[in-house]
Amino acid sequence: MKKILCLALILCTFLVGCTLSGGGGEDTKSLVPPTQGTNAGESGTPGTSGEESSSPSPSEIAEIETQVLYEKDNFKITATGLELGSLWGSGVKLLLENGSDKTVRFSCQYVVVNNYMISDLLFSAEVAAGKKSNETLYFSNFDESGITKIGCIELYLRIIDSESYDEIAATGRLEIKTNLYDAMDGATADGTEIFNKEGVRVVAKYLSESTIWGKSVVLYIENNSDKDLRIDVEDLSVNDFSFSNLDMFTVLAGKKSVDAITLFDSELEKNNIDTVEKVEFKLEFMEPESYHALFASDVLTVQVQ
Question: How far is residue 178 from each of residues 70, 174, 267, measured CA to CA in Å?
Fold first, then answer.
C-alpha cells in the first residue's frame, strides 16, 4: 500500500512539473513592456547569454566521482553517479545506509542545481534497520531552468523515524561537483522586471499556453538577500477576474529559481477568457520554516502582448 501511495504521489508531482513546459517556444506569448534582460550569471554566478533553447538537454555528459556526502549518527549517504535523460528526467544516484536500530525514511527538503532551485519528484526512501538501499533522486523542473550543463548539485536531506515521523537528523547542504563545474549554465533573466526590493528580484518572462493544467506566467526569481524565502502568490486575477491559486516557491539565500503561476483552464473557461491580456497578483515573502511574514509586494501587473 505504501508503495502504491508513493507512486501516486510521484506521478502527481510529475504532472505538476509539466506546468513548466514550453520554454519560450511556439506556445508562449511575450509580456510588455519587455526589458533588455540581464544574464542570470551576473554577480559572480554562472549563466548563459543569448536565446534559451526551447527544450534544453545536457549537451555534454556530466559525470561525478563516487563520494560520501554524509556520515554521522549511524547514517551514511553516498553519491554514486548521475542519471540523465531517463523517463523521469535527470537525477543523482544515492546509496543510503541505515546503521541504526530503527527503520527510517530519507526525504528531500531542497535541491539546487547550478544555483537554481529545482523540484524533486517527492523523493522518499525507506530503509530498514541495519540495511541499505540504492535510490535515484530525480529533478522535475530541470529543463525550464535553462540548464544544459550540470556543474553543481546541492542536496538538503532529512532522516525521519518511519514510525513516529520525528526528524532524526537534517543533513544541511550536501554539495556534489561534476566535471562540468566550470561550464555550468542556467536561465537568462529576459523579460519584464516586476519587483526589485529587499534583495529580491522578480522578472516575468513569458506566458506559457501549453501546460497540462492551462496557462502559466513564468517567473525568474533571484534571492540576493541573506535569508531563505518562501514566496506565496496572493490575490491572483486574470483580466480583472479573481482566480484561485495555490502556487508557492522556496528560494534559498543567494539562489535563483524559474517558477510558474498557474492559470487553470477550468477558471479561464468559467470566466469566458479566451485571451489572457492582464494578470495581477501580490507576492508575500516569509520564512520557510516558521512562516513568519517578512515583507510583501504591492499589486504586480503583467500585461500580455
Answer: 18, 13, 44
Summarize pLDDT for 107-134 with one digit per residue, the tens.
999 999 999 999 877 899 999 999 999 9
Cβ atoms within 10 A of the Cβ of 228, count? Answer: 16
pLDDT reading at 142 higher than 80: no
Domain at 22-38+189-304: CATH architecture? Sandwich (2.60)
C-alpha distances out from residue 143 to 77, 113, 259, Å: 26, 11, 12
How does DSSP classify residue 3? H
| φ and ψ of 74, to 5 deg | 70, 10
Long-range contacts (CB closer than 8 Å, 24 or more residues apart) made by 162-170 = 162/102, 162/103, 162/104, 162/105, 162/126, 163/102, 163/103, 168/73, 168/75, 168/100, 168/102, 168/104, 169/72, 169/73, 169/75, 170/109
CATH class of the domain whose range is 67-183: mainly beta
Expressed in angstroms, the distance from the first to the final Cα of the chain is 49
Let me know how long the chain is. 305
Average pLDDT, the chain: 84
Which helix (H) or strand (E) is 169 found in, with range?
strand 167-177
Same fold, 22-38+189-304 and 67-183: yes
